[in-house]
């Protein structure tokens, strides 16, 4: 039997909520989710590796990819560009494998417009004070940038209604289990399976 086309999962949420930490944990586990590495024009943080955490690139090259429609989505956030190269996503889905994107909210809204059948998961902090603690704990941004991120976070949380699922990142292990459960549940949806099983009945 031909393998069904893969499902596209989109994980996003406010900056500092822990998207990268969650994805690192999921990638270390045995799952059917293939990770799509985003492209960005921001500078690497300490410990980040090009081609592993992000594809780091220059703004000129990024803008070229926008013009040539080589990105599934892209967004500008705090002066830097972030985006998802489209070729890897399309090829992986066509093989029947699932893909998960870890992207900013602006980018997720673009994917929703361009690929509405994707499954959208909003990663939520336990509280705004905890979100601030996580951003401050990075030790990588000055106070004005931190306040700007928190202001944007409030606006992004108000967009939660555009998502299919909400996962609270209270503990990394629990958040990962919830995301994996969503993946399993989506593959068991009646509307995805009905036609296939009706064909089995007709073949008897």
- Run of helices and strands: EHEEEHEEHEHEHHEHH
Shape descriptor reads: globular
The amount of beta strand, in percent, is 15-25%
What's the CATH first level of the domain at 8-36 and 97-203?
Alpha Beta
How many helices? The count is 8
Gyration radius (Cα, Å) is: 18 Å
Segments where pLDDT lies below 50 for 5+ residues? none
The biggest sheet, with number of strands, parallel, antiparallel or mixed sense and barrel status, is: 5 strands, parallel
User: What is the percent of helical residues?
Assistant: 40-55%
Which structural class is indicated by helix and strand composition?
Answer: alpha/beta
* Strand numbers in spatial order across the main sheet: 2-7-1-8-9
Binding site for ATP: 13-20
Organism: Lottiidibacillus patelloidae
Keywords: ATP-binding, Cytoplasm, Kinase, Nucleotide-binding, Transferase
Main location: cytoplasm
Structural topology:
Blueprint: E1 8-12, H1 19-28, E2 33-36, E3 39-40, E4 55-56, H2 59-67, E5 71-77, E6 80-85, H3 86-94, E7 98-102, H4 105-114, E8 119-124, H5 128-138, H6 143-157, E9 165-168, H7 172-187, H8 190-203
Parallel strand pairs: 1-7, 1-8, 2-7, 3-4, 8-9
Antiparallel strand pairs: 3-6, 5-6
Helix pairs in contact: 1-7, 5-6
């Amino acid at each position: 039997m031909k393998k069904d086309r893969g499902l596209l999962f989109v994980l996003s949420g406010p900056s500092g909520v822990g998207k990268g930490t969650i994805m690192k944990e999921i990638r270390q586990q045995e799952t059917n989710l293939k990770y799509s590495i985003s492209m960005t024009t921001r500078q690497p943080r300490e410990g980040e590796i090009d081609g592993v955490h992000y594809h780091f690139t220059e703004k000129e090259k990024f803008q070229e990819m926008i013009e040539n429609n080589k990105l599934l989505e892209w967004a500008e956030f705090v002066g830097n560009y972030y985006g998802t190269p489209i070729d890897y996503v399309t090829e992986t889905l066509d093989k029947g494998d699932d893909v998960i994107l870890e992207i900013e909210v602006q980018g997720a809204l673009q994917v929703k417009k361009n690929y509405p059948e994707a499954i959208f998961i909003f990663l939520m902090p336990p509280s705004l004070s905890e979100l601030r603690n996580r951003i401050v704990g990075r030790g990588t941004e000055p106070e004005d940038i931190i306040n700007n991120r928190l202001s944007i976070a409030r606006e992004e949380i108000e967009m939660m209604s555009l998502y299919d699922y909400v996962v609270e990142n209270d503990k990394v292990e629990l958040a990962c289990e919830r995301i994996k459960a969503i993946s399993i549940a989506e593959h068991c949806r009646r509307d995805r399976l009905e036609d296939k099983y009706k064909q089995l009945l007709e073949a008897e």
